[in-house]
Every structure is written in structure tokens, then in C-alpha cells.
Amino acid sequence: MSVTSEAGAAEQLEVWIDQDLCTGDGICVQYAPEVFELDIDGLAYVKGEDDELRQQPGATAPVPLTLLQDVVDSARECPGDCIHVRRVADRVEVYGPDAD
Ligand code: SF4
């Protein structure tokens, strides 16, 4: 089953990073540089279409459907287990350490 059908293709998703657990290895940036970026502090942050890093704790960026697979792979491979992908509608985590 593809990730889009697991999550529901019509569902809007957003992603955030718990920087307290980020190791700074940059795996997420390799998978999805459109969504993740390492800042000069060596930690990864999410960003949106404006390319501005969202540096508030728990700040989210939208997950475009075209990048969903890359973002999900990032969450699965993240050594810090700190990439959280959730539904915008009810804030339920669908990929990441707190997903069922
Ligand atoms: S993959 Fe996880 S631990 Fe590695 S830089 Fe990205 S958020 Fe941080």
C-alpha cells in the first residue's frame, strides 16, 4: 500500500521537528530539502514555500503531497526519532514516533 492511501490522499498533513532530540546528521535534508534544512546551530528545522525556517518549538510546515513519500522516509530514518507528521484537521500523528 502506498503512503498516500495509508494517510488518505485528500488529508492535509503538516510536519514538525523536536529539536531537543535532533542529532544534526542531516538525513532529512537529504531526503526532502524542500521541507527540511539544517540551520547554523546544526539542528534541522522545517520550512514552507517561503523558504523561511520555522524556529519556534513545535512549529509546523505543510507537507505537499508530492513530497509526502520523502517526508515519511525522513521520519522513518530519523536517528533522533524526532520528525512528527500529523493531520492538520485533528493534529493526530500519522507518521513518526507518536503514530500508532
Ligand atoms: S533526520 Fe532527524 S535527527 Fe537527523 S537532522 Fe533530520 S530531524 Fe535531525
Written overview of the protein:
- The chain has 100 residues and is of the alpha+beta class.
- It has a single domain, classed as Alpha-Beta Plaits (2-Layer Sandwich), CATH 3.30.70.
- 20% of the residues lie in helices and 25% in strands.
- It contains three helices and seven strands, in the order αβαββββαββ.
- The strands form two sheets. Strands 5-1-6-7 form a four-stranded antiparallel sheet.
- A hairpin with a 5-residue loop joins strand 6 and strand 7.
- The mean pLDDT is 93.
- The structure holds iron/sulfur cluster.
- The site of iron/sulfur cluster (SF4) has 16 residues, from helix 2.
What's the short story on this structure?
By secondary structure, the protein is an alpha+beta fold. It is built from 3 helices and 7 strands; from the N terminus they run αβαββββαββ.
Write the layout of secondary structure elements.
Layout: H1 3-7, E1 13-17, H2 27-31, E2 36-38, E3 44-47, E4 53-54, E5 61-63, H3 68-77, E6 83-87, E7 93-95
Antiparallel strand pairs: 1-5, 1-6, 2-3, 3-4, 6-7
The chain binds iron/sulfur cluster.
Iron/sulfur cluster (SF4) binds at residues 17, 22-28, 36, 44, 74, 78-80, 82-83.
Protein name: Ferredoxin
InterPro entries: 3Fe4S_ferredoxin, 4Fe4S_Fe-S-bd, ET_Ferredoxin
Pfam families: Fer4_15
